[in-house]
Write a structure and sequence with these properties.
The protein has 272 residues and is an alpha/beta fold. It is built from 12 helices and 10 strands. Strands 6-7-8-3-9-10 form a 6-stranded mixed β-sheet, sandwiched between helices. A 4-stranded antiparallel β-sheet has the order 2-1-4-5. α5 packs parallel to α8.
Amino acid sequence: MGTPETAAEARRTTPIGGSPAGDIAPGLASEKVRAQARDAYFGVSHLEAYYGDSYIVQNVSFTVNEGEIVALLGRNGAGKSSTLRAIARAASPQLRGGEIWLQGEALHEMQDYQAALAGVQLVPEDRRIIQGLTVEENMELARIEGELGWSYERIYSLFPRLEERAKQEGTTLSGGEQQMLAIARALARNLKLLLLDEPYEGLAPVVRHDIERALREVKADGITTILVEQNAVAALKLADTALILDSGEIVYSGTAQEVLGDEALRHEYLAI
């Protein structure tokens, strides 16, 4: 007899739809994955996105429960940021296949501003703080259209540094403070799904801990977060579940603790 599979090994060989590929006809399996995505709090099924002719997001499917933090991991170039951008309905990469659902709303039929109004807020790696506007004006601009999110008072209780610098131009803040402002802008709007792209990039450990504390409070409020982060260990310690991308495809889905405890898996796909 062969050695029984570990739970982590089984997850590596089982599609997101649930059953091993040989147990169900391909057409039925695809419909099962689509149904799971539609019925979940948030779900994507068979997501395919391109930069020109480059096939960058390849048949990605997964679901997320309300209030979860998901770490979306992989080596550089694996397609992590592109997956976030496709979910947010950014103009690039171009979505050419698949479905994206948030609480029964078909995000794949929307443009980026419509997805934002539906509750999807992307905090990109470069933060996109608007030059010439103060901290408070950056947040106010986010609140112009659609449902309002957190009040300024609540945001400032989460990020006291922003209250101290409310009248300071946003682009003159430190890197960590700009990251706080980028998250604050997302919180100022109707927020159901927070997409964070490399939030720890270039931050000192003490500032990173401030961001982690804030994200735990966001989770406590029931907000769902998908986190792309090159510092995989830090992301896994914060997350409930983990997805690993390799060459645009999901190769692993499981709990964050399973990944932390599986040295072979981390070495194979994350080089840690």
